[in-house]
Amino acid sequence: MRNLLLSGGPTHAFEQTTPRMVRMLTDVGFESIVCEDIEQGLRRLADEPCALLTVHCLRWSMVQAEKYARLRPAWAFSPSEAACAAIDAHLARGG
C-alpha cells in the first residue's frame, strides 16, 4: 500500500523525524512517498491515489502575528482549492 507523507516546516527536526515515520510505516506495510512541497504532493495525490495520507509538517499562512514575518517567504502556506479538493477526494475514497 502506498502512503503520501507531507513533511517539512520551520523550527522542528523534520529531517530526523520523517525518516523514522517512513520506517514505522514500512514496518506496517506502507511504501511512503515523501513530499516537502505540499501543493505538489497534493497534486500527486489527485493523480496517483494512495491508501494513506500522512501530514507530518508545520505549515500555515503565518499572517496571525508579525513574529512569523521572517519565516513567511520560505514556509507560509495556504492550500489551493485544488489541494483541498485532492484531500476531499482522498477522504471520499475511504483514505
Can you describe this structure?
The protein is α/β, with parallel strands linked by helices. It contains 4 helices and 3 strands; from the N terminus they run βαβαβαα. α2 packs across α4.
Keywords:
19% strand; single chain; 95 residues; alpha/beta; 3-stranded parallel beta sheet; 4 helices
Question: Can you describe this structure in just a few lines?
Answer:
The chain has four helices and three strands, in the order βαβαβαα. With 95 residues, it is an alpha/beta fold. A three-stranded parallel beta sheet has the order 2-1-3, sandwiched between helices.
Largest sheet: 3 strands, parallel
What's the average pLDDT? Answer: 95
- Indicate the radius of gyration in whole angstroms: 14 Å
Helix count equals 4
Roughly how much helix do the residues carry, as a percent range?
40-55%
Specify the overall morphology. flat
Order of helices and strands: EHEHEHH
Distance between the termini: 12 Å
The class by helix and strand makeup works out as alpha/beta
Secondary-structure blueprint:
Layout: E1 2-8, H1 14-27, E2 31-35, H2 38-47, E3 52-57, H3 72-75, H4 81-92
